[in-house]
Amino acid sequence: MSAISASEKVDGFTRKSVRKAQKQRKSQGSSQYRTQSAPVELSPLPQLKDAPSTEQQELFTQKLQQCCMLFDFFDSVMDLKSKEIKRATLNELVDYVSTNRGVLVESTYPEITNMICTNIFRTLPPSENPDFDPEEDEPTLEASWPHIQLVYEFLLRFLENPDFQPSIAKRYIDQKFVLQLLELFDSEDPRERDFLKTILHRIYGKFLGLRAFIRKQINNIFLKFIYETDHFNGVAELLEILGSIINGFALPLKAEHKQFLMKVLIPLHTAKGLALFHAQLAYCVVQFLEKDPTLTEPVIRGLLKFWPKTCSQKEVMYLGEIEEILDVIEPTQFIKIQEPLFKQISRCVANPHFQVAERALYFWNNEYILSLIEENIDRVLPIMFGSLYRISKEHWNPTIVALVYNVLKTLMEMNCTLFDELTSSYKADRQREKKKEQERDELWKKLDELRLSDSALVQNNSHGLQNNNNNNNNNSNSSNNDDTEDKSADSAAALPTDDKEPDVLVNIFV
Amino acid sequence: MAGADGDDSLYPIAVLIDELRNEDVQLRLNSIKKLSTIALALGVERTRTELLPFLTDTIYDEDEVLLALAEQLGNFTMLVGGPEYVHCLLPPLESLATVEETVVRDKAVESLRKISQEHSPGDLEVHFEPLVKRLASGDWFTSRTSACGLFSVCYPRVSSTVKAEIRQHFRTLCSDDTPMVRRAAASKLGEFAKVLELDYVKSDIISLFTALASDEQDSVRLLAVEACVSIATLLPQEDLETLVMPTLRQAAEDKSWRVRYMVADKFSELQKAVGPEITKNDLVPAFQNLLKDCEAEVRAAAANKVKEFCENLPEDNREQIIMTHILPCVKELVSDTNQHVKSALASVIMGLSTILGKDNTIEHLLPLFLAQLKDECPEVRLNIISNLDCVNEVIGIRQLSQSLLPAIVELAEDAKWRVRLAIIEYMPLLAGQLGVEFFDEKLNTLCMAWLIDHVYAIREAATCNLMKLVEKFGAEWAKNTIVPKVLGMANDPNYLHRMTTLFCINALSEACGQDITTKQMLPVVLKMSNDQVANVRFNVAKSLQKIGPVLDSNALQTEVKPVLEKLATDTDMDVKYFAQEAISVLVLA
């Protein structure tokens, strides 16, 4: 106890590196073994290649059955001999199905799938680290990987064998099989997810009857991830498969696929761990737009709806995705969304976080985007001007200010007259905005007073309102002064206080 | 005035529409949050005919705005003209109940449930129930999910034909092909069962329960466990064995640890729901298995329930069941490999002593307590110490005190300040149970050492601890044991320690009373007013303000006042400020 240094005593939290080192020691998990009773010792069978061809089939089946035995990998010294026998046998099986022709006869299919199911399908163990952060922490690795890896390898070779017949296999590789396979994508072990990705891709390719089902289940996984749990380790892998699936969609796109885009892929952008799969997600979205450009408007509106409010890191990702979309956008589509889009971009360039501002300003380095802006400069410039002008004077970061000057210059060259007009009306515009804001405040103040006097209102309507008007006249001396000032600046006649209210009302109606 | 009135009643809708279309979400949000103000200004009729249709049409917005809208509408009954017109609120809420974002949808359902109570039975059938049906047969899963939460609120108040339809819809949703809907249905199964007639519980609910409990997704199965509690409560004892138990047994041995975890987590409720006989025959072995489960999560959840489970066992053979079936498992858990399991156990294990009585506690439990007091994980030790009172009642704390002391000392010096903080909080409790002699002999030094801890939170807690100790042991004890040591720190070279003296005086003066405060503490405080560190000086002013009420007026006038007046002219502005504050609070000016 006395060995504790003063600094450690002050800061009770152990440093992260220490915590990590401790975690790594035991960062292996598996609940696979635990479902079975104690394993029996395995005895080695003769090599397949040494067996006479008439007996090979029988021996193959025996080996498959032998590999159904599961071992406890938590205890690294337990059953060492049997573990080694199983490993060697699995290796031999992998080799056997990948190099030999004519070994996949119909009767072996149930044995093969049984061996695979027994080994890989399991309830994934609870995470060792309840606050597992995939971006920061080391994943828990699958303890039984020495065996499971070979089983995955075997499954892959089985699917890729030229003799493989989906028509027979579909009796075993069915919806239930796929469902269990999909659940494994939640594994924390990236090696496992990588195998699963390739395997699911092959299954999708070979089993036409399962395609719709696979898509639907992925849908469900994503929806659960977005709206229920916020946790699933295999989102990136599933999106990667989807990327290639979307690529192959026939035109015109089915309603089902469009729904998937709008109701699943776009909401996926809201996930906390977006950084882990954003590249794959953006790829899927762009694939959709390349297939069907008319989807551009709803997609961009969707992204604008979910635009991050506080997370700058995410905002940078969104901007990246918008640029990818603009790269493939059709000019007719651009016109449809330019207004809401550039309002957001103008907010981004004014962002105090310089990485966000910088990412948005980089749009002006993109030739194609520049050409789109130039074609629509009359619409884009008025939206962008305010932010750019202000930032050029106010932003704390010199790099941003320099970039803004370049952008302003580019825009000025596109339409000099409009630029000059905007420059000269800038001040008046700001003042008008300020005034509008003040009017809004006034109105809400009035509404609040309405509420304050609501008991009076219920009793006696006109009396209540009268009170309310009086209140308003009494308590707004200072704001009246401001108001007057603004009005004169706007070259409108300053109105006497008594007539102020109707005037404000008219303004708001307009 | 009449003209102005007309305008006043006109503008809110215009403002609202304007604000609702504002680009700034915050402004849209503001206007929605004040929706009731606007409705009030509009009056009930225009709220119904203009505002609500407008709101129904503008449902596409940011989720944050929608959430606020969904919440507002739940409290809108009076604003649309009372229960007679409450059904006007259904269209916008129906749309909100179909949006993707879960929080919005849940809020819309919550509001719908609320206003369902305000519908007359007739309106419920004409307006509300059709809405539930539309949601239940919606295309997208969100509306079907929302429907699940609405069945139980309308079922009790509709005719029997409509009831039959509702049951049918619920059945359909329980076998929906999206797991999201099945989860929603499973989570409402218990609630729905409660409003059904017993015959239908037996005929309908049981089959749904059985199906959901063997769903292919474990996230559905585990929700069925929750429903199991309500269903078992509803059924007569003789039906439980055939209708519920097969499913419950299966859940306790489910291949997914999440389901087993849920069983462990709900164990006490399940135990109460199925009654003593089934508990004896089925739940005891099931509980043993959960305590020995291969996943630590499950063991920890079960360990948490050990005390409650034992407490609720039928009294006639409770002791025998615990001794032969439960205690052996508990003994194993004491040396579990997972610290969460051990600490879950440590938080309840002491409770067993009251159930088992003195002799069993000494013979069987005491060794376990002692082992846990030596556990490597501080949380385990803390949990034991925090529950000492249960043991004290049964066997007296003396049995433990020899092992307790090293454990306390070790925690008191733990490297993590949160652990130190936790043990300080138990000090008054420990002191009360161990008695003043033991305390003086063994623990007093620790309490004093905390006063000079490196971490402020510990020093602060230590001060507060002293106050509680004085409340327990009395002023006389304080005068001899604590006060001299505290006052001694006033001459410490470290100004933080000198300030601790002042903080202690603040805390102790009231408990110690006028005599000690005036004679022992006040001179020290006054002397510290000459300290060279400004922080000490303004804390002197604060302390004087604090102890002023305990002093008599003579001391205040002759001793405190001059010092405060001097401090009020200090060169440091904070010292001045607090001195002046003290003068005015103590009315010395």
UniProtKB/TrEMBL annotation, chain A:
Residues 27-38 have a biased composition (Polar residues). Residues 467-481 have a biased composition (Low complexity). One of its GO terms (cellular component) is cytosol. Gene3D superfamilies: Leucine-rich Repeat Variant. This is Serine/threonine protein phosphatase 2A regulatory subunit. It comes from the Eukaryota. Belongs to the phosphatase 2A regulatory subunit B56 family. Residues 1-56, 460-502 are annotated as: Disordered. It comes from Pleuronectes platessa (European plaice).
From TrEMBL, chain B:
Keywords: Repeat. GO terms for molecular function: protein phosphatase regulator activity. Residues 276-357 form the Phosphatase PP2A regulatory subunit A/Splicing factor 3B subunit 1-like HEAT repeat domain. GO terms for cellular component: cytosol; nucleus; protein phosphatase type 2A complex. InterPro entries: 2AA_helical, ARM-like, ARM-type_fold, HEAT, HEAT_type_2, PP2A/SF3B1-like_HEAT, PP2A_Regulatory_Subunit_A. The keyword Repeat applies. HEAT repeats lie at residues 12-50, 89-127, 166-204, 205-243, 244-282, 283-320, 326-364, 365-403, 404-442, 482-520, 521-559, 560-589. Residues 89-270 form the Phosphatase 2A Regulatory Subunit A helical domain. SUPFAM superfamilies: ARM repeat (SSF48371). Signal peptide: none annotated. It holds the Pfam family VPS15-like_hel. Belongs to the phosphatase 2A regulatory subunit A family. PANTHER family: PROTEIN PHOSPHATASE 2 (FORMERLY 2A), REGULATORY SUBUNIT A, BETA ISOFORM-RELATED (PTHR10648:SF4), SERINE/THREONINE-PROTEIN PHOSPHATASE PP2A 65 KDA REGULATORY SUBUNIT (PTHR10648). This is Protein phosphatase 2, regulatory subunit A, beta a. It comes from Pleuronectes platessa (European plaice). The lineage of its organism: Eukaryota, Metazoa, Chordata, Craniata, Vertebrata.
